[in-house]
Amino acid sequence: MYAFDYQRPGSVNDVKAAFSGDARYLAGGQSLIQAMKLRLSSSERLVDLGGIAELKTIKIDGANLVIGAMCTHAQVAMSADVKRACPALAELAAGIGDPMVRNMGTIGGSIANADPAADYPAGLVGLGATVQTNQRTIPADAFFTGLYETALKPGELITAVSFPTGAKAAYVKYRQPASRFALVGVFVSQGAGGVRVAVTGAKGSVFRSSEIEAALGKSFTPEAAKAVKVPTTDINSDMHGSAEYRAAMVSVMASRAVAAALAR
Questions:
Q1: pLDDT < 70 regions, the chain
Q2: Full-prediction pTM beyond 0.85?
Q3: Which of 11, 103, 120, 110 is nearest to 55 (CA)?
Q4: Which residue, 81, 127, 147, 192, could crosslink 204 as a Cys pair with Cβ 3.0–4.6 Å?
Q5: Looking at domain 168-262, which CATH architecture does it have?
Q6: Where are the domains of the chain?
């Protein structure tokens, strides 16, 4: 690990002064610290967000569920508010990694890292969430821009994620057995804004399946989702599965997600 300066601000207002030069935010550290240990990543300064209590709250705000950026996966999974307002999101969080990862990793850190096989991106896009920062709000559809890339500007801090409530929703993934990341994961929702189907693990970034959305818009059934043949364009192909296999699994996982959503 390379040497670095360490800052731990106590509030969002203190972050701006702490973040300067070649700096990076430190949330749960489940990806960043490992990369730094292997000298795959380096920064002159780390700004630890762990001391900012205002980033660790979960609340219901009208028709929205608002989750602070520093809420851990375990906190989201166990929250009574999340279970009541959006049980699919609580189940998604409960299926991330192992207990150590869930107790350290955060929702803000996960979406800022934008791993192509992470679970939260599917939840955000699948529910039509909004990312709140210290500068603006960003719709989830515009937040994830590519492989490990987001719409965040240098120094921009995620403060919370706002999820609309009231939709029928579920998330199902086919896990990579060692990492528990999604080889293919699909989040399906049916709400006031219509049907949304978000896919993770299959491309370089989370994406919406317009083909499955169209089919479910006509008939919100497992059979309708499973009957869709997903194009293999830009679908990942590696030792764990070919593009054709992953494309087929998108329809299968979507079908299972619809069944789970209807069973609530």
A1: none
A2: yes
A3: 11
A4: 147
A5: 2-Layer Sandwich (3.30)
A6: 1-51, 168-262
